[in-house]
Write a structure and sequence with these properties.
Layout: H1 4-31, H2 38-42, H3 48-79, H4 87-97, H5 103-118, H6 124-136, H7 138-154
Helix pairs in contact: 1-3, 1-7, 3-4, 3-5, 3-7, 5-6
Length: about 160
């Protein structure tokens, strides 16, 4: 039997993750109404609305990955009586259990988010590629989050 505090935390995290997914999808729909190209990236300097849309998308993408990887995943693993260790160990366990299709891709997306956050002012090609890749891999992160939540629901924990 899990502790009430852990159960309440999982209920809270599940609710937060569902909201984050909803908001990320909304931001992606707005930003990617048309393809995000190098030309679009070049217009960021004078298009405040586009710059804001991009900032919101990046922020929400990063937030969802953080919430799932740093909070939901370790708490879920603890409920499964899996000893949580480092982030990479947790990802490996999630892959073995089957909720994470690829640790490699998860880590690649961590690197891509760094490119979106830190390098976009200097190199618009890196920004464009990183933004396009993050958009193409949205379902990957969302599916991981939903798989964990689904497992919690099947176990009647939340």
């Amino acid at each position: 039997m899990i502790e009430l505090e852990t159960k309440e935390r999982l209920i809270f995290l599940s609710r937060v993750v569902k909201k984050e997914i909803k908001h990320l999808k909304y931001s992606a729909k707005k930003l990617f109404a048309t393809e995000f190209t190098i030309e679009k990236a070049e217009s960021l300097a004078h298009d405040d609305e586009l710059a804001e849309q991009l900032e919101v998308f990046i922020s929400r993408f990063c937030r969802l990955q953080d919430t799932v990887g740093d909070k939901l995943l370790p708490t879920w693993l603890s409920v499964l009586n899996e000893r949580t260790k480092t982030a990479i160990d947790n990802l490996d366990k999630a892959e073995k259990i089957g909720v994470l299709p690829s640790v490699e891709l998860w880590l690649e997306l961590r690197q891509i988010r760094k490119q979106m956050v830190h390098e976009y002012i200097e190199d618009l090609t890196i920004l464009t590629n990183a933004v396009q890749t993050s958009y193409q891999q949205l379902d990957f992160i969302i599916n991981v989050a939903e798989a964990i939540i689904s497992d919690l629901e099947k176990r009647k924990i939340i």
